[in-house]
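not sure who needs this but someone in the group chat was asking about Rhodanese-like domain-containing protein from Rhizobium fabae so here u go. i didnt clean anything up, its just raw.
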Amino acid sequence: MPSPVAEIPAAEPDIAAAHYAAKLAFETDCSDVHAAFAAGKSDFVLLDVRSPALFAQSHLPGAINLPHGKMTAHRMSEWARDTLFVVYCAGPHCNGADKAALRLAKLGLKAKLMIGGMTGWADEGFAFEQGVPVAA
């Protein structure tokens, strides 16, 4: 009798590879976002989709606050059509980033969800910023 782990057989390697490649097309993680910013390779726009009040309390360095309800075709036209957006919210208990990614996709834009959100960022020990950045 197999263990609960082996009771359902694992996928064949080619099927598993396709599954995980597809999954990574939809998401990234805190470590990759942090590494990209640290290396100066921010080839994406990082969007904090929480409320302005929560953003002012604490947010990821380099993030722009844009709640998913404010993502309109007009607002998003500020960026090139081929811009990659990375969205995050409070953490795994919040679906705001999912709603934002859906809204962006419906607007014809590319988006990845940063899994873990604020909770994941804190778990990694990465620094936060406070306040609202002043426009240049």
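also The chain has a mean pLDDT of 94. if thats useful
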